[in-house]
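Folded chain entry —
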Amino acid sequence: MVTSETINDATQTRFFGTNDPTPPWYKAGLTQTRFMPESEKKPDLLEKKKVVIILGPESSGTRNIARLLVKSGFVGESLQGAPKFMHEHGQYDDFDLFKKEQPEKVIFRRSVPHDYEWVDICAIVNFFKEASYFVSCIVTLRDWNCMATSQVNANHVRTVYEAKANIRKSYFHIFNGLNKAGIEYVPLSYESLIQYPTQTLRMLGVELNINFSFSDEHGIRDENAKYYSKFDIKRMLLSNESSWTEMTLKFSHKKKFYCTRAFEHVQLLENGNMTPCCPPWVNHYTIGNIKEQSYEEIWNGEKAQEFRKSILDGSFKYCNKKSCPLLSNPDLRSFDSGLVTEDKLHTIKRDNIRNDILDKKTILDHGPTEVQFCYDRSCNLSCPSCRREVIMVSGEKKKKILDMQDKFQSNYLHDAKDIVITGSGDAFGSYIFRTFLQTLVPEQAPNLGFIMILTNGLLLKRYWDTLSPFAREKIGRINFSIDAATEETYLVNRRGGDWKLLHENLEFVQHLLSTKQISSFGASMVVQDNNYREIKDFVKMCRSYGVCCVDLQIIEPDFIKDLKHEYYFEEWFSKAVHEKKHKNHEELLRVIKDPWFDKYVDADPIEMYMGPLMTLREGRDISQYENNLREYNHINRRLSREIGIKTVPYKLVDKEQNKWEKADE
């Protein structure tokens, strides 16, 4: 056994004040520990209640040793597991479980940090000591680079730099906490478990007075090998690349990619925030707020420059590569704006955007050329994928948004070549967006060439003739959100919709397309549990109306989460058939892998845009389950603290059946 000596404030300052690459566990765990003399060792502990606390950074292997201890008669991890639809390695927070059961041998596992919170090690140790347990601890260690890269892949952090800083802080927190708590610990290497499982577990058993029950089928796989087999490690070590994730993108596709959106696109949100892309695709990264800064200050501000740097250096560190349909499958042909390989930069149509990338500019001499209006959620429908009820802004809020739009419309569209309306509500169901389209004149957007309309389609025919001549002239593409191929499914997914009226408007847009009043017609489906079997019929229906491109999207939890609905995660997951843990996921894979779709996916120009589902079709994973669950639990705990109550979202009602239900607040 080893026990750590005091680590002074100067050491703490050194750990947090520099980018010292030497792991704190090395300094704290090896250079500042002492072996316990035989005279200080405890008597035989086999007769006493024991708890083994397992601590380590995220992705360090804590759950491996927890499983082995469960097989050896310990309880805790098996009881603190989560419902099948939650994270399979859930880390339970209810100490009442132990007070009630008082098992003889307990494990208590914590990754550090746990759900963005830094666990109070002293409080945990004191709890078990007061319950008359003998407390010992295992600290899990793992290869530095593999652990960091695994954290990025699991969406714990965005970059390897961030992961390594987190790991340093984690080990300092662990060893400092154990020192203050005054308990003994054993460092356990993940690599030792892989290479020498029998010997390692026997030695660990001697240290902890545990008889491990294990066999060659201990279930611990070498998860490090995949990180070392995919990359040129020598190049990685000698380069200035900021992370393995950055190199993953480059090596896996052989070419470097650039995204043009950072240099041309901006979205204005309801609260005044401006984002450089679709919010879920960039983890809700914002570059400023129009209520607090001028348009120019935002467009070339520090946050906008940082975002462009992340594109130019190839890191894409602010982007969510599983949510973004371009990053999830860079080999896909995109629309006019999107990912471009380094050798295809010359194909970018806009000279200023191409030159920005070639010249590595982060401060631009032009404004955004593509502007998306997302500042009003008003819509005539209440589709469950994004809202609980019909939203129509009114009163003072409506006046404030109109004032913001007037300012935007009068002053900030001079460089705009493309406008997208909307991504938040409906272009015609919203009085605010409808007003914009009815009042837009050439002087406000002298360089405008194209307007894209995103709509549920039900009000388009009614309001088409009320739009300003300039707006009608510039509308080039109309996109219908439909989400179904049958009336029954449509009335569920497009709550408040009218199947007959939808088809009348589909015919109307088909007429606009055939008479060359618009140049393109699209339709989209948010693929979910109740409609994935209709994808083929949806494509057929759309093609019968002359739809140029069908767009398949995955369901995201953001809209419901933003409306602060308490159980948004369960609702999202019940519909998120693209998640590998979903009960119908395998059937979805069979549907989208049907060769029938090949002629549409491979067409030029593309006639079916699968986005992240194309990644699934090619055998790669796009799951965001763990990340969304972690965020959901974090939000629940934060809200509970704010209102002064303790909330445990679930309780175990049948241990043998692993049956859970929502706990009473």
Q: What stands out?
A: Residues 160-181 form the longest helix (22 residues). The mean pLDDT is 79. The chain is about 40% helix and 15% strand.
